[in-house]
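Structure tokens please, single chain.
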Amino acid sequence: MHGRVTAMRRYHAARVRLADVREVAQAFGVTLNDVALAAITDSYRKLLLARGNTPAATRCAPLSRCRCAG
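Here you go.
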């Protein structure tokens, strides 16, 4: 995202029930972090589209599937 950095900044937050996020994660066989990352990624994509910045291509990034203690 290009533009001058100014004092005018804003952000949005959403509250969700942890039980709901766990239900989504379990339904798709993923972790809570995977659900959070998907939500953040979708929000960022929508912001870019609203500003007329269509993402050039779909990118994939590997995520850890380790369920190790520690």
